[in-house]
Amino acid sequence: LTSIKELLEDEERNDEMLVNYDDIYLDFTRQRANRKTLDLLFKLAEKANLKEKISGMVSGRKINITEDRAVLHTALRAAKDEKVVVDGVNVVEEVHDVLDRIKQFSEFVRSGEHVGATGKRIVNFVACGIGGSYLGPDFVHEALKTDPIAAEAAGDRHLRFLANVDPVDVKRATMELEPEETMVIIISKTFTTRETMVNAITMRDWLTHAMGDGAEVVSQHMVACSSNVEGAKEFGINEKNVFGFWDWVGGRYSVCSAVGAVPLSLQYGFDSFERFLSGARSIDKHFASAPIEKNLPILMGLLGVWNISHLGFKTRAMHPYTEALVKLPAHIQQVDMESNGKHVTVHGEEVDFEVGEIDWGEPGTNGQHSFFQLLHMGQVVPCDFIGFCESQNPICEDGLPVSNHDELMANFFAQPDALANGKTA
Predict the structure, then answer these.
(1) What pTM was computed for the model?
(2) Residue 178 CA to chain centroid, in angstroms?
(3) Most distant pair of Cα atoms in the chain: their distance
(4) Are 160 and 216 in contact (CB under 8 A)?
(5) pLDDT digits (tens, 9 = 90+) for 57-81
(6) Do 136 and 196 touch, CB atoms closer than 8 A?
(7) Phi, psi torsion values for 360, nearest 5 degrees
(8) Residue 21: which H helix or E strand, with range?
(9) 8 A C-beta contact, residue 130 and residue 319
């Protein structure tokens, strides 16, 4: 095979492997691919009717044939005036009905109009969920934590997540929190997820132990994101404080539903969550409409197919060069590996080739002092490097030749070049 170092000498090829959309720049020049590779991958996408399948997904066609369901996480961030019909119902209207309720409720709590059972203001939030009910919201929480606008909106509030059924996680989630100032958000579509319900009962006991077992303790300190309204009511949660989502929302894609909207809006304000939805909506439009050769998500997907199914690389490492994306690898592990963790086609036929990368990673520059030795001198591992032109927290110290962020980004640019070009003794 031609080495990446040799491939990078072809400037015409390099120019064709730089694509951008909405200030997002995708540089895949360091992939072990050439023009012919891309042409073959584009033909593969056409043969698989990829664009038609994307259109079917975003329009509400029931592409989940095993459960006869639509797959409509894109509808969760659709604009209010859009229309997506499933079984005769415009689901966008339903989505915005729930979002409007969440906005009203989060403002009610944040303003101090909704208080706890003892009259104290609610400033702490513990989100109880596992899998997609935890990984997506926690990822966005970490990203917003140091965003200047979101951080200012958060003020003195605290958001924590309780996922593991291990009681140590309960201890960590509640450490230094006052029950009288805490709201618990139970996130479970069915309101029956075993680990979540064990933690929900534990958190209910934590609240009632501090404030008594009156019904107002649960009704004022616990809310739910669930489609099982009756189950939440039986638990003691006020029906008005149950925020639903639908069977066409896959758990791993649910961060844009009430699953993410409730905890993130309570912590950072609904406007911050709306900004997040706006960004997701923008890339959705690009994904659905841009031609394959200029489509960022499709290009990344096709290159993933090339690396795993054709070149035989088993893993993909993610290196976000910002601490704000510390939970991105864990989120992508579920989004990608749960989706592609199959050995049969949608028609139930076994595949005779490798599918599904093993996703892992760590923020830079931490990973450089951990596992990069293996990447440089041990095994070939396809890598995604993610960097930002501006820092959420710019610092420039007197006496240092460059700013902290420039130091970070110097590493961001140097590492891919070192991996691609190697070093000749």
Answers:
(1) 0.96
(2) 29
(3) 74
(4) no
(5) 999 999 998 889 999 999 999 999 9
(6) no
(7) -160, 170
(8) strand 18-21
(9) no
